[in-house]
Amino acid sequence: MNLENYIRDINDFPKPGILFKDITPLLNNPIATAFCLEKLLELVGEQKIDKVVGIESRGFFFATLLAQKLQAGFVPIRKPGKLPYQTIKKSYALEYGSDHIEMHLDAIKKGDKILLHDDVLATGGTAKAACELIEDLGGIIVQCNFLMQLNFLNGKEKIAGYDVKSVLNY
Ligand code: AMP
């Protein structure tokens, strides 16, 4: 199965000059979704994972599926003001703008082995901020795991030193 057939390119979304990688055709197809999940799990291999951290919002889809398969907990990283309990925050630069992200203070325990997941690694700003949040709480990042990397944006360099893996590369 060629997963690229289930990723739709949308020109100039959400801003002019951005080629948006739309994963909704993939999510719309249960066979492609199951295949993609298997590929993401292959990237992790036999490594022990305590928590899968997913980045809002498109990271949530596969992060929860991965957590179930890995018998790990799921932790959401969210945009500002969405999480109801006490949070820690980090600001970051996006391919299109800047923002900050939050995580619940009690979501990760010191020494937890963490799989970080998102749909797209673009400039790497979001993933770097997510790694900082995880490490601030004492988590150990086992892998930064993505559906796809946009190689021309060099996101991997921003999170150098981590095991960065993706199913697709553009
Ligand atoms: P970045 O911080 O630049 O690596 O951006 C990563 C985040 O923005 C991810 O959560 C992606 O969902 C989203 N994102 C950035 N660029 C794109 C793109 N071209 N297509 C789809 N999502 C993107």
Explain what this protein looks like in three dimensions:
With about 170 residues, this protein is of the alpha/beta class. The protein has a single domain, classed as 3-Layer(aba) Sandwich (Rossmann fold), CATH 3.40.50.2020. Helix content is about 25%, strand content about 35%. It contains five helices and nine strands; from the N terminus they run ββααβαββββαβαβ. It has a five-stranded parallel β-sheet with strand order 4-3-7-8-9, with helices on both faces. A two-stranded antiparallel sheet has the order 1-2. The model has no long low-confidence stretch (mean pLDDT about 95). Bound molecules: adenosine monophosphate.
CATH topology: Rossmann fold
Question: What's the order of the H and E elements?
Answer: EEHHEHEEEEHEHE
Q: What percent of residues adopt helix (DSSP H or I)?
A: 25-40%
Which whole number gives the mean pLDDT?
96
Characterize the overall form: globular
Query: What structural class should be given to the helix and strand makeup?
Result: alpha/beta
Main sheet properties: 5 strands, parallel
Number of helices: 5
Enumerate the strands of the largest sheet in spatial order, edge to edge or round the barrel.
4-3-7-8-9
Ligand types = adenosine monophosphate
Rounded to the nearest angstrom, the radius of gyration is 15 Å
The total domain count is: 1
Strand content: 25-35%
CATH class: Alpha Beta
State the total count of DSSP E strands: 9
The low-confidence runs, each spanning 5 or more residues with pLDDT under 50, are: none
